[in-house]
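Example 3.2
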Amino acid sequence: MAEADGRVPRLEMRNVSKTFPGVKALNGVSLKAWGGEVLALMGENGAGKSTLMKILSGAHQPDAGAEILIDGTPVSITGPIAAKRAGIAIIYQELALAPNLTVAENIYLGDEIRRGGIVDRAAMARGCRAVLDRLGAPFGPRTVVGTLSIAEQQLVEIARALHADSRILVLDEPTTALSARETERLFALVRQLRSEGIALIYISHRMAEIYELSDRVSVLRDGGYVGTLDRDGLSAESLVKMMVGRDLSTFYKKAHTDPAAGAAPSDASPPAVFEAVGLTDGGRRVHPCSFAVHRGEVLGIAGLVGSGRTELARLIFGADRKAGGEIRLDGTPVTIDSPKAAIDRGIAYLTEDRKALGLFLDMSCGDNINVGVIDRDARPGGVLDRARGWKRALAAFEALRVRAASPLVPVGSLSGGNQQKVLLSRWLEIGPKLLILDEPTRGVDIGAKSEIYRIIDALAQSGIGLIVISSEMPEIIGTCDRVLVMREGRIEGEVGGRTGVAITQENMMRLASGTAAQAA
């Protein structure tokens, strides 16, 4: 159906519902996307975004009564092949490429050029050259995909979609594994495709990306369509309220002393639970760093990508070998030369890459929670007391409000926020003195972020010392009592606490960029 101005949407989905056994995943959702625009699709994990896109891709079939129109014409998407023929391509967060094949072989996968029954690789290489040139690909058609970076592999997926004459392109969390420079290149490509008339649906939890790229934003909540905002009407407050039904002000609750108000911090500080003195890897990534974390304190570590934040955390945890410096716990020097030594001393580290380095995705939530303290459940004869582990997992589910049917569910099937809670539960079982949280809300929807902030605050109140490493300035401001800012492997400065310098984005960025000294 044409709009009042005569334009016809490139894609229109009407009254889309989807019922799984016992669950209504989508309830009467409608969506429009125009050629030559970027439509952002937002919502918490579990809001229905993935289900809606799987219906568009043909992976799921909707309930009776749903309609899908392309350029005003109803289409029947009975499966992925039908979706491809209709000009629909979806690039998921987990890329669907064959790493042992060449770029050309991946682009033609399932539609190979054959001569006398034999695959004509030379013809395929020639056939995809134009689309690679169009995208400015820095590799050729004969390059083996497994040798490419994640960003370059993503480009192969986009090339495959364009080679198939896709007119509707869905990008699902496309920047999760990309560096800042790679993200900028992707944004430039998205703008290029938009200028070529392609309809792009962009799924992301990152507000900054939504502001930068989107022409309109549609929001789903609890399987239903909430509404759509035009670019001119976008604001963090309005989007958050649409997604979770409450105001942005409820997310960040940390109260900071305003130095300008003249309120001096108390002279009586809690004792230091952790101290680093000259900790370094020899200057390769981390130059000598000294600082302390007090009981009940949330210490933030901020800085630009590559500043050495994660590398410093890995030195503390013993994941990387230190070349110099000393670690003290409760004032006593200790030797931390391995993660096991750190755990035995009460230091826990929640990694920024929970899927590759944190969780056993094929194992149950309960087993992931108990794996760090499984020795407590040992009975004579080498038999595990599974009842004790079950009770521990149930208590962790209740304490951290993990949303899953039971601890028996594989952790890989949970949303990002619930996976993070399971990983956090594992570390809390060891009773840590110091808990390091590296990008604790990466890949987590905004509702789950609020829950994680609540947990951080509760842990600090219980007397644990915490270090929070985050690339999100509002997150650092909203959760931390004091912030160290790193630059080029060094602690460039500190804000908050007794410094008299307010914890603001401006003050942190001056230190992170090296302009604070110039301003002084």
